[in-house]
Amino acid sequence: xxxxxxxxxxxxxxxxxxxxxxxxxxxxxxxxxxxxxxxxxxxxxxxxxxxxxxxxxxxxxxxxxxxxxxxxx
Length: 73
Hints:
It is built from three helices and no strands. Helix 1 (2-20) runs antiparallel to helix 3 (44-72). The model has no long low-confidence stretch (mean pLDDT 91). The chain is mainly alpha-helical. The longest helix is centred in the C-terminal third of the chain and has 29 residues, at 44-72.
């Protein structure tokens, strides 16, 4: 059961990495930032992406944290 919860938590964190765009090199992050800024000066898309990144990351932590705590207790 704990293996399934761990896998679900990892999937959520990987989704957060993919959506946020931090899984690429620094020059690609910079290029994506400036391209997005030119296409959406208000920043609406970035705010939506940040919201979903935080949701997926928090869900991943919620699944993984109890497993880590139970491992050490």
